[in-house]
Amino acid sequence: GPTVEGLLASMDEAGIQTGILTAGLSDPERAHRRGGFAAEDFLAIADEHPGRFLVSAAVDKAAKPTANVRRLRELAQHPAFVLARVTPLVEQHDLNHRLYYPVYAAAEELEIPMSINVGIPGPQVRSRCQDPVLLEDVLIDFPHLTVIGAHMGHPYESLLITYMLKWPKLHLMTSAYLATYMDEAMVRFMDSSRGRGRLLFASDHPVIPAGKALDAARALPLSDEGMAEYLGGAAARIFDL
Fold first, then answer.
1. Chain centre distance of CA 86
2. Residues 6+ positions from 231 with CB-CB distance below 8 Å
3. Are 91 and 62 in contact (CB under 8 A)?
4. pLDDT of residue 1
5. How high is the pLDDT of residue 105?
6. Are the C-beta atoms of 132 and 173 separated by less than 8 Å?
């Protein structure tokens, strides 16, 4: 599999200073049984390479909300842990499902931003669990929670622009979506006075290689200020770097 050194080399080649590594939120034993990495493994990597890596964890067993909250509290004690994630398509629970609410509440209390996949997912599964119209429940019920819509939210860009204008704690991350294909209205929004700083660059590497994603992002017709916000300024504020 890919090595840390290989990942750092690809980041250096692309000009990426800091990347976020995502593990499952479950206990380390579960990840290791599956031959994967636990959040603790990624936190150790972050410690070994200061300034290069941050860590997030995605809910991978929604039916265990108490354990999920306990894990989130444990991980949040590490300064490199900056993001919790919900990926509704995987277990097919709506993003506003009651099973996620304890995690949202804990993230709000811990001041950890929450990434939630929105839009039509690539895999051939039901999409309604990721309908961004459901975000309003989360934004209303957790008014101090920073919410980042992940994976672009296509084809709901118009709705998401309206929501970002309405909800100041809502942001959008362009992970797993090449900037080449971004909606023109969204590109205009992210360089407007009210939209600058609301979108975050992400690649979902290796699904889209980081260098390829960054090349496409740098080709967007943005002002210097808008580009700086998109390629790191907004993330630096949201993740308190």
1. 9
2. 201, 214, 217, 218
3. yes
4. 62
5. 99
6. no
Q: Which two tokens stand for residue 15?
A: 């000009």
* Cα distance between residue 64 and residue 232, in whole Å: 34
Each domain of the chain, given as residue ranges in start order, spans: 4-238
Structure tokens belonging to residue 12: 């250096």
Cβ neighbour number for residue 70 with a 10 Å cutoff: 13
Q: Does the domain spanning 4-238 belong to CATH 3.40.50.280?
A: no
> What's the rounded Cα separation, in Å, for the pair 160 and 149?
9
pTM of the model: 0.97
Edge to edge, the sheet with strand 81-86 lists 19-24, 53-58, 81-86, 114-117, 147-150, 170-173, 199-200
At 137 the pLDDT is 99
Ranges of residues in the chain whose predicted pLDDT is under 50: none
pLDDT digits (tens, 9 = 90+) for 160-187: 999 999 999 999 999 999 999 999 999 9
